[in-house]
Amino acid sequence: MISEQYGTVFTNEHYEKLQKVYSIWICPDPAKKRRNGIFRYHTVQDAVLGKAYESPDSYDLMEVVIVNLGDADRKSDLEILDLLNTLFSLSISSETKKNRLQKDFGIAMTEEFESEVQDMCNLGKSLIDQGIEQGIEQGIEQGIEKKNLSLAKMMLRDREPVDKIERYTGYPTDKLKEIAKSIGMTLSA
Hints:
By secondary structure, this protein is mainly α. It is built from six helices and three strands; from the N terminus they run ββαβααααα. Helix 4 runs antiparallel to helix 5 (162-169). The protein is extended, with a radius of gyration of 28 Å.
């Protein structure tokens, strides 16, 4: 984000025109001990020896804010967290979200805003679906890898020809040598 300012915020060597950037991460399902917490990370000068001569404006150019959400059904110490917990909750319906936004936070439900809330609800569901899909794909890949490894070991123990093992498992000779070594054999190609 800082380097993207070149050509828009500053040009040539005018780095003094750099503006501070913020990266805000919203974590919908953090560890229990981190729930309903907001943490800020930024650059701090620590003079080990000598007197500090730079002002924070010249080096503290990036800040990360991590917002750890909690349960939408429990109040937190900050209203903004309660609002975000409601908006990003995967356990409450879009209708309940709209009602809470109106009643608890005084947000008028215009057609445009109602549409945006619906989009956010759909975004949460699509992120879950995408995560499940990726998990299934990874599981399939791991299963295939396990099967190929098991097949290679079995064929090596049965002293099958290397070209046949390569054809059935897709492993190159170098990989088959590693597998053979792991089961106490040497591969004779």
